Structures are given as structure tokens and as C-alpha cells.
């Protein structure tokens, strides 16, 4: 029986080749989009699951005690390095502790070769591989970081540096930023990349040769991870840790003669906590989680998938008339409804299987482009490490079969033989309402996509064109400690206008705060440390007063510049007035500048104080953390060549690395640009699927009305009357779809816009354009089929009657 049903299913699919192709292609496109999102979700959820031992690893986090943020709790993902030894002694639950620092790009020298920059160099403690069970290909984890000067490298790095030989025993020279002499490290191990992504990642991991003193007057922070013995509850662990930490912190504050009153007055107290490793990537301390970022994309892919399923159901039920006699005859000769349902589900399953196979082929072909477009590294490969994807695809196939096949199967199997065989069914309106609802729902989604992409494009255009408050053209950023001696040499280059330092740049994002008093009101404010040319180099927009001047000694002692947000918060007219640093040291306001956009458009620009003073409210010395170099764009090539030559003379073992401020500013928009491109892609697919579905449905239903059209023509109906008759239902359907779509997409897009501190007002024009385009497209699509029907000769349709 199964074999017979399979034969019948194949014959029916081949008999209706065009509709089968439309169904399979439409479903394949929807599935491809859905599987792409499924791959991304799996990739993000797989972080830190590459070894069962990682379930026992926790990150140590401290409450930020450098800035209380007026009572707002802010946790740091680094901890004071006094704490690891403390908790190892005081907490018996702790098995081992590892800490490390990511130092950013560093210079590497192999033998007598020229130095080159290497990302992913990490400095770690000797217990690193006791906490993180990386698989060693060369060397042993027990001794790999046993001594200062040891380094362990990834397998891919070993292959690039030394070829296919065992790298253990080889030496590598590594140079930190601004160190004149590189340090030599001995390779003591090589490890394989974990099978799933890891929050703790590196290319080279080393034990530092230099050590840093830990005393009451010097803080040294690092990322700290703790491995716990056995099974422990998070509540018990953190309660024990807090008791140990609080006593330690109070004693430290007492030795440093610091008060904890500032904490207590805001209802806070010095705190630390242990966070499971698998939560680090899923719930980051800063920025949005990957899930919150991908939620809109999941919604888009689900809508596209829904359109595909609607197309399938619509086409299947539209063919009901041609299958009615088959069902009627089968029932007359004794077929049970159960067997008919099974037959139609089998036909659905075959089409869904073909669609799934086609979708994987399409996705495999387009995946390199999608990875490049969305800056991902996804792969559609099946092995023992990602069998979960295969299992999900099987479940997805079953879900699609049930969604797409259940209603058509029950609908087709419900025909009554007496009605079908009398010939009454062809004139029945059974299924017509459902088809109209499904087509309408398709176009509700398609119109929503169309309006959404227009509004998103406008918001993107607004962000790209919005004045950032400074001139980013012809400015480079060198992210390394500022040296006045080298700055003087750079300033002497023909074409260089300013050489400044400014820790409030986009790629630094230091977010330092300080306490200031004005009009007897004390506030914690965002503070940016600059040198005398740190604002001139950015060509900031000066609104009132003046900028800092290198020849003015008072600027390095007691003057500040405010941004316009802070001046408004203080009531305006601030030039010449004094604010008090740390509630005591007077600083005169000498200038007001336009707000500078150095973060994303999601957050409002903070009221900010700019200072050149070494003794400032942040507690950090103002020695400069970077170089901001403004130059004449006409002399760009000669300027960059001269900068590189000076750098080579000063740091022969550390190549120059810089970025253009314009590029850094553009990176702020990257995530939103990706989202816009993804919405464009899904909009194109959804509109295409809707139009294909409409075209095929119009063709099928017009064919059903061939005799009706012929009779009307015989009775005197002209082409214009027939054209309007066959189009009006679809036009009304599209009008209703627009009316239903508008409030839904308004709410959705307005919610998306509400995530921006700087945004456009909701425009009306996209709704008007979407209405006009959707009506015109519907008329054009249907008219292609209607034209053939109304120009056909009536005799061809009626000659057998």
C-alpha cells in the first residue's frame, strides 16, 4: 500500500510540474533563511561547551569601586590580583585559579626576519591550563607555563610560524608597545583549537618575564577565572565569596585611609561575585547580548518561513478541484479517509524533503557571501561535533510537513463523493475564503517588509549624515602611550597640523568618571583626558570661549571645557564660571564644544568634562594613551611615509599600526548596516515569494474560470469589463492587506526606532509608496494571466459542452 501511495504521489507531482516547482522553490527559500538563522543561533549557544570540565569554571567579577555612578551598580569583568590568593586560602571549594590579560596587538620576531604585528597574545598565570582543559598536541599542560618566559601557541599559529614540525624548543621574540627591546620566549607547547567557540581565546599565551608589585598603593587588574571542586550552588559560592571579600576590602580601605561612606550612602557596599563561564558570552556586562541583537532577525526569518508555508498550503488547496474526482472515486470504491490523509501527507512530505535538500544546496552556495556580509564564520558541515544541526533539520522537516500538509490533507480528504461525482464541486466556493485569507496574510507580511526597509534605510541615512561634532577626515589614531618627545618629532613633519592625545575616542571607550560640584550640587560626570591639542586635532565645533592652548600654563592646572549637554544641564552661560573638582579644587570653564558622537546612536551623549590637568577628578594621571594626528589631506602620502620613518627609528622592533578616525566612526554603524542588509534580503525574498504565489494562484484560478469568461464574452462582455472583474478581488485583497499591515508595522518599526537616542520621526511617505507599489504590482501580476484568458476564443472553451 505504501509503495502504491508513493507511486501516486510521484505521478501527481509530475503531472503538476509548474505548481510543484513553485511549491518546492518557495519552501526552499523560506527554509534556507530559517536554517541560516538556526546555524547562527547554534553557533552562539555553543560558546564554552567544548569540554564538560568548563561547567566548573567561573569568572570573578568586582563591583566597580572607582566610580559609584551615583548609586548605579556596574560590575567589572576584571579583578584585583590580590583576590586570587585570598580566596584560594579562604575558600575550600576552590580547586584552582587562573588569571590573564589581553594586551592587544604586539610585535613578533622570528629569527632574523622583520617584525610583524600579531593579534591574540595573552599573558597568563601558570595555572591557566589547570582551569581551561585545552587539548595539547605538543608539550604537556602541567609544565607548559611553569616558568616566566614560556609561551604556548595554537596549532594554526605553529603551522604558520614553523611549518609542520614540532615547535617545542623554538624561540619567539615578543615586543610590548613602546618597549625598545623585545623579550625572548621559549615555545613549550601547542594546543588545538576547541571544537566550539570559546570566550577565552588566544593565539599565543605566555608567562610574563617582568613581574608587577602588589601592595596597598598599587592596583593590578586581570581577568580571573576560578575552578570549583565538585558540585556547588551559585548562591552558596557567592555568599562565601562575599564574606571573604568584604572583610578584605574593609581592611584594605582602612590601610589606604579611604572611607566606604560613598558606597554606604548610595546603598552599595564593596562586592564580588562568581559568574558561570557559560553565561559570560550569553549575558555580557557591556553592550547587548547576541540574543537581543538577533531577535529581529529570528522574527524576519520566521515571517519568511511562514510566507513559504502559506504559499504551499494555498497552492495545494487551490488544486482541490482537480483532485476532487480522484478523492470521490476512491471513496466510492472503499478507500478510508485515513488512507487518503496519509496519501496527501506523503505528497507533502516528498515536496518538503525536496525543498529541504534544495535549501541546503542554496545555503551552502550563498553561505560564503552571507558570512562576508554579516561578518560571521558559519559552516553547514555535519560531523560528530554538530550532529545537533542534523537533528534540528529532521525536526524542522517534520514541523514543515505538519504545518504545510495537515490542513490540505484533511481538506482534500473531506470531499463528499455524491457532490463531487454530480459535478457540483467545481462550482463550490469551498476553500476560497481560506485562500483569500492566506494570500492576504502573505501580503500583510510583504507590505510590512517593504515599509520596514524604507524606514530603516532612512534611519541609517540619518545616522550616516548626522554631524558627529568633529571633523573625522584626514585624522589617524595610533593606539599607544603618548610620548612628548616623539610627538614633537611628528609635529615637525610638513603637513602635520596637530598631534594630540584624547582618551575619549571611539575605539578606546574608557568611560572615566569624576566628581564635580557646581551650585552646591555634587555629581559624577563623564570625564575625558586630553592634552593641549587633543581637541584641535579632531577639529571640534567650538560654540563659545576657547580651546586648550599649549602655551597657557593655567590650562594644565585649573581649567576645563564642557560639552553642550553639560552646559545645558548646568543652566547655560557657563563661560568664566568655576566648577569644583572632587568638590574642592576650583576649575574655570574656558570653552563649550558641540557634543561629540564617539559611541553608538543607541545611547545619548553624556554630559562631559574635558581636562588637560594631571590632577583631575578621575584619579588617573593624564599622561596620554594615544596619538591623534591631524594632517593636510593634500600631503597624506608624504605625511604617512614620514610618520612611519620616525616610528621605525624610535621603535625598530614594533611596527607602526594606526586607524583612520573616519573608519572608526563608520564601525559604529556596522551592526545596523548588517541589519539593514538582512532586512533587504528578507524583504526581497518575501515579496518575491508573495508575487510568485499570487502569479501561480491567479493562473490556476483564472484557468478554473475559463468557461465562465467564455460565456460572458458570448453574452457581450468586453475586455475592459472582464479585466476589471478578474482583478477587483485581488485589488480589494491588497487594500485590506495594507490596512491590516500599517498599524502592525508602525508598532514594530517605532519599537525599533525607540532603541536609538538619535532617530528620525516616523515618516508617512513609506506607507504611501508601499500602498501604490503593492496595488500596481498586484494588478500587473494578475493581468499577465488575465490577458491570456480574456483574449482566448470562446469556442475553444465551450466546444465540448
UniProtKB/TrEMBL annotation:
It is a multi-pass membrane protein. Keywords: Cell membrane, Membrane, Transmembrane, Transmembrane helix. Residues 20-241, 444-617 form the MacB-like periplasmic core domain. It is found in: Cell membrane. Residues 299-414, 681-793 form the ABC3 transporter permease C-terminal domain. Pfam families: FtsX (PF02687), MacB_PCD (PF12704). The keyword Transmembrane helix applies. The keyword Iron does not apply. InterPro entries: ABC3_permease_C, MacB_PCD, Macrolide_Exporter_MacB. The chain crosses the membrane at residues 21-41, 297-318, 339-367, 387-412, 433-456, 681-702, 730-752, 764-784. This is FtsX-like permease family protein. It comes from Pedobacter albus.
